[in-house]
Amino acid sequence: MSLIVQKFGGSSVADAEGIKRVAQRVVDTQAAGHHVVVVVSAMGDSTDELLDLAAQVSPASSDAREMDMLLSAGERISMALLAMAIHGIGASAQSFTGSQAGMITDAIHGKARIIDVSPHRIRTAIEKGDIAIVAGFQGMSRDSNDITTLGRGGSDTTAVALAAALDADVCEIYTDVDGVYTADPRVVPSAQKIDTISSEEMLEMAASGAKILHLRCVEYARRFGVPIHVRSSFSHNEGTWVLPSPDDQIKIQEGEPLEQPIISGVAHDRSEAKVTVVGVPDIPGKAAEIFGIVAGTNTNIDMIVQNVSTHGSGRTDISFTLPIVDGAEALAALGEAQDRVGFESVEYNETIGKLSLIGAGMRSNPGVSYRFFRALSDAGVNIDMISTSEIRISVVTGADLLDTAVRAVHAAFELDGDITATVYAGTGR
After folding, report:
1. Is 379 exposed, middle or buried (CB count within 10 Å of its CB: 0-12, 13-18, 19+)?
2. How far apart are the first and last CA of the chain?
3. How crowded is residue 365: how many other Cβ atoms within 10 Å of its Cβ?
4. How far apart, in Å, are the Cα atoms of 268 and each of 65, 217, 386?
5. What would the pLDDT profile of 162-200 be if each residue is shown by its tens digit?
6. Measuring CA to CA, which residue among 75, 391, 428, 411 is closest to residue 270?
7. Any idea what the Cα angle at residue 259 is, between residues 198 and 180, rounded to 5°?
8. Mapping DSSP to helix (H, G, I), strand (E, B) and coil, where does residue 41 land?
9. Checking DSSP bridges between strand 103-105 and strand 114-117, what pairing results, if any?
10. What pTM value is reported for the model?
């Protein structure tokens, strides 16, 4: 029997009817001759509701340990209700918290990283013929024995980590759209579904703001060779296959092009802010000091630009982007170090948006950059920052122009299709 890990997001288990629909789908998968392990997110917007409740109880920054205890409750509710729903239709299931499932993490609350997976109880359950249901997004620190959470999108990472540890045949990520699209179909209704995509391209899309898969989940799948099938829990349509390595190719059908397309898609992100450290002494080591301070807050930096020092001033400006949720902590740390580092001031802007063009084919096709920037120019979109990789071009612009920019670039590269994409629930997960 093959082993399938299925992950269902919050929109799929948003209410009782959704949970019963997921239960039937899981049982049907088992009835088709597969062992099944299920990972679930919290119901609907319950994580946001818990965060709001915490803010009402304690408006100041809440204790990170207690916040993890609170937020991990959402997935535990989902797992128990899904097990009950499966029992209700005559099948057998056991639910497990992250720690019971053997998800061992470091001790960083709120954004813990997995350091080991020991799914002994999961193996025992599936060997008995039970469906194993695991609470996503959470684990346990080996050092402190405390509950930890993996950060937003962490249920995707839970699912792939379990798939790797159990040597599953596939990890199915169920969402509220039919797969990975050339752009967010809420912004570009004419976006086309991508049938297959390399993990390299999917990594760039996830890092650039595509909500369909979490970045750490794609990294994990690529490292351990886990194939991912992204599909909708609201339909039985074939989704998008994310291939972990060039060797894992799906057979090309007659009539399909042999070369991959130049561009895979356009991604955008509204969750980042821009920090500019003004008047940094233009001497070796100052940039390292600044980024060391930010790293000390466990904040991930995305794009970086350093201006050329004005002649004779001996000072320069350094700009970078980071997640908005980490902005306050990073600003506080920089403020405390201002006198020691010797910069003049810090500017902070949350009203930005990042747009990225991704495609492995662009490295062998000249003119992509011109076409990209020409489309933005024609749409009246000004650019604040630029960053590139071998298969990606990213720019930062004003948040109010982001949707216009996405549609302009998508059209410029002829990615629009004739069929309007179906969004079943509306959240993208």
Report:
1. middle
2. 29
3. 12
4. 32, 19, 14
5. 999 999 999 999 988 899 999 999 899 999 999 999 888
6. 428
7. 35
8. coil
9. antiparallel
10. 0.85
Any idea what the Cα angle at residue 124 is, between residues 123 and 126, rounded to 5°? 65
216-242 core/surface letters (b: 16 or more CB in 10 A; e: else) = bbbbbbbeeebbbbbbbbbeeeebbbb
| Nearest-10 Cα torsion for 281, 284, 290, 296 | -150
218: nearest Cα among 258, 288, 290, 159: 159
Cα–Cα nearest to 357, from 349, 367, 347, 348: 367
Please give the C-alpha separations between residue 196 and each of 230, 239, 303, 380, in angstroms, as whole numbers. Answer: 10, 9, 28, 33
pLDDT band at 59 (very low <50, low <70, confident <90, very high): confident
Find where tokens 């930005």 sit: 352
DSSP conformation letters of 209-242: T-TTS-HHHHHHHHHHT--EEEEETT-----EEE
Domain span(s) for CATH 3.40.1160.10 in the chain: 2-175
Residue with tokens 């600044």: 290
> What's the average model confidence in pLDDT over 278-287?
93
Look at the alpha carbons of 210, 192, 194, 157 in this order and tell me if their dihedral is positive or negative. Answer: positive
Matching CATH number, 2-175, of 3.90.280.10, 3.30.1330.40, 3.40.1160.10, 3.30.70.20:
3.40.1160.10
Q: How many CA atoms lie within 13 A of 187 on its CB side?
A: 25
Q: Which two tokens stand for residue 12?
A: 């799929």
Residue type for position 390: E
Question: Cα 264 to the chain's mean position, in Å?
Answer: 17
* Torsion sign across C-alpha atoms 48, 103, 325, 66: positive
Tell me how far apart the alpha carbons of residues 191 and 181 are, in angstroms, rounded to a whole number.
6
Which residue ranges does the chain devote to CATH 3.30.2130.10? Answer: 260-429
Strand partners, 393: 357, 388
Fold of 260-429: VC0802-like (3.30.2130)
d(CA 51, CA 74): 11
Contact 291, 271 (CB under 8 A): no
